Amino acid sequence: MFFQKKKRLLAKPDFDNLPQHIGFIMDGNGRWAKRRGLPRSAGHRAGAKTFRDMVRYCKDIGIKNMTVYAFSTENWKRPKEEVEAIMDLLRSYLKDAFDHREEEVRCLILGDTAPLAPDIVALIKKLEDESRDCKQMTLNIALNYGGRAEITHAVRELAGQVQRGELAPGEITEDTISAHLYTAGQPDPDLIIRPSGEYRTSNFLLWQSAYSELVFMDVLWPDFTRRDLDRAILEYQNRDRRFGGV
Ligand code: FPP
């Protein structure tokens, strides 16, 4: 069936009317490396560069919340050297705390940090504390993160409150659940971008993405550019968001 589009389509992104929150599934690092005959760790290194550039660009154009999927609860299944390579990239990013403060970016880690190396846990705490009052943008790094695990964690906390008599079951609402997620207090993502040609969201921001616009792109994450982000924003702005209404 053919539906005529009523909306006037934009030819270029409207930077005065940006999504508040963008999520990135940073996929395709392994394939990028393989195509070049390089080890997968080289792909992650290139991906980390893209990530840093995207943080800068998102902050500069005025995106208020940005979330990247850096390491999922399932990624532990990868070879030890690859996991270590990703953790090392993360270490070096976390150590640049001073830069973040200069860039006015508040940094938060979404996920269960308990199984991470103690030095990484300490770096996370330091960066989260130091950047707490930065107002330009909130950067969420999903690390040892899974959407289902996040919801399970929230439900456990609420069940504990019910058990202690602090909360009646009838008082559990969508808002109380949202308030117990790692993203508590932040707007849901308006736009989620997955490069690399895969068409799924892989347990990323499961609850928060109920009404997100999904943009899938063919480019691999290490090749993802500012121009690609502009293209994704344009695609988002040309969609008709109705949130279940008409
Ligand atoms: C998915 O690509 C990517 C990851 C599992 C790791 C993402 C990590 C980074 C971009 C670098 C570190 C992050 C920070 C925040 C400094 P893949 O390996 O699954 O690619 P493939 O599907 O082509 O194999």
Automatic annotation (TrEMBL):
Substrate binds at residues 28-32, 40, 44, 72-74, 76, 78, 194, 200-202. Catalyzes the condensation of isopentenyl diphosphate (IPP) with allylic pyrophosphates generating different type of terpenoids. The keyword Membrane does not apply. Its EC number is 2.5.1.-. Keywords: Magnesium, Metal-binding, Transferase. Its cofactor is Mg(2+). GO terms for biological process: polyprenol biosynthetic process. Belongs to the UPP synthase family. Pfam families: Prenyltransf. It comes from Bittarella massiliensis (ex Durand et al. 2017). This is Isoprenyl transferase.
